[in-house]
Amino acid sequence: MRRDRFRRAVTGASVILTLGLATIAGCQPEAAGPPSVDELLRQTSIWQQPTLRIGVAANEPLMGEIKDGVRSGFDVELARYLARSLGYTDESDVEFVTVRTDERIRFLLAGHVDIVVASLSYTEERAKLIGMAGPYFVTNQAFLVPKASAATLRTEDDFKEKKVKVCTSGSSTTEDELTRRGFDRSVVQDLQDCADGVRSGKYGAMSSDKTILAGYYSQHPQDLSYVQLPFGADERLHVGVSINDRALRDLIAYFLKKSYDEGRETGASPWLTAYNNTLGAWYLADVDDISQPEPLDVPDLVDHDDKVSPR
Fold first, then answer.
1. Could you give the dihedral angle defined by the CA atoms of residues 47, 50, 54 and 55, in that order, rounded to the nearest 10 degrees?
2. Would the pTM of this model clear 0.70, i.e. be above it?
3. What sign does the dihedral 235-236-240-242 (CA atoms) show?
4. Which end of the chain lies in a sparser environment, N or C, as judged by fewer CB atoms within 10 Å?
5. What is the pLDDT of residue 24?
């Protein structure tokens, strides 16, 4: 009899304990999933900001330029896509701010722009000053020379032995590389001066990222030729943001990856569309070369119907 009562007591206690644990488990909040685009947007400095200010170049054909009062180029098309993704669906809500090469980081630090999409290559030094999302394009350094000189300028030694003056833009990774390798170089603010100088004979060559050179080559293919040397590291183009706005950096990285992946199998991704409408005909790359690496450090977000909340 005692044993039966003991068993009934133990059984009853077990049931109560089981129900109690189930009740406690039911009261526990479910494990949080990844944040949504909307939630991250609310953490950015641009939340409810009526205008998005984007720094872009105005003197880089096919990348960032102004034609008949309209901005165009690969960087500009990508900037428009990013603006729409961030909720600035009307271009009247976007202010494009012209930035020279030597102004890009300074404009971000001073708060003159919210993001910069202007052939900004990643370096560790820059990453200490600003946030960087990308890469959205990987290219390399090259040269444009007069067509008549192309046959005699094939190596680094050719440039140095012939004392070729190479023109490039200030505060650029190209300037650093030319200086490090001991080229005779001349630095300007506007790369158009380089292109004009090469055609007039003032300079023997101009050097920059191949994406930028493609634009100047497209304007004067009868006068200029590419020279590509095994020269320098890959140039990984990034979008610049304030170093204090991690949420905005993460959103930019997320949408850059989406621009690359969405519709890529059919050739209709936003990234490929921008490339084909701008650089594609002049970059002189095989299709395999355009299998760009995806952006790094991309957060896992929930994108509700590909939309963000109104600002």
1. -110
2. yes
3. negative
4. N
5. 46
